[in-house]
Write a structure and sequence with these properties.
6-stranded antiparallel beta sheet; Protein yippee-like; 141 residues; mainly beta; 3-stranded antiparallel beta sheet; Metal Binding Protein, Guanine Nucleotide Exchange Factor, Chain A
Length: 141
């Protein structure tokens, strides 16, 4: 339309410029949560109830976390990984990355990225979740 601001024939703007928009804090977009099958026993985050793992993915209940007992899982969901670093654990030197709940950001345990002793190689790519950060959910009756 003639006289609209988009028209090449619009009159030049006269007067002060409009105020600049206020600083806006840009946050990370919310990630989508994965939901595990309702027919399986599962473990969820104790702090926000986000699903973490199926009981079928449990490898061992005999692990020690930094704050008590922990379970070793083959795979997990709704979990983010920090950077890998070398740590001396009870079973020797490993490269591990802390893992956290993607929903509430609570640190849950760690992921074994690399084991330096041949007897510990089975842990590579597996996840430790400490018991005090998860609850049994669905189908445990």
């Amino acid at each position: 339309a003639l006289g609209s601001l988009c028209s090449p024939w619009a009159a030049p703007r006269v007067g002060p410029l409009p105020p600049a928009p206020a600083m806006v804090r840009i946050s990370k977009p919310k990630t989508f949560q994965a939901y595990l099958d309702d027919c399986h026993r599962r473990y969820s985050c104790a702090h926000c109830r986000a699903h973490l793992a199926n009981h079928d993915d449990l490898i061992s209940k005999s692990f020690q976390g930094s704050q008590g007992r922990a379970y070793l899982f083959n795979s997990v969901v709704n979990v983010g990984c920090g950077p890998a670093e070398e740590r001396v654990l009870l079973t020797g030197l490993h490269a591990v990355a802390d893992i956290h709940c993607e929903n509430c950001k609570t640190t849950l345990g760690w992921k074994y990225e690399q084991a330096f002793e041949s007897s510990q190689k089975y842990k590579e790519g597996k996840y430790i979740i400490e018991l005090n950060h998860m609850i049994k959910d669905n189908g445990w009756d």
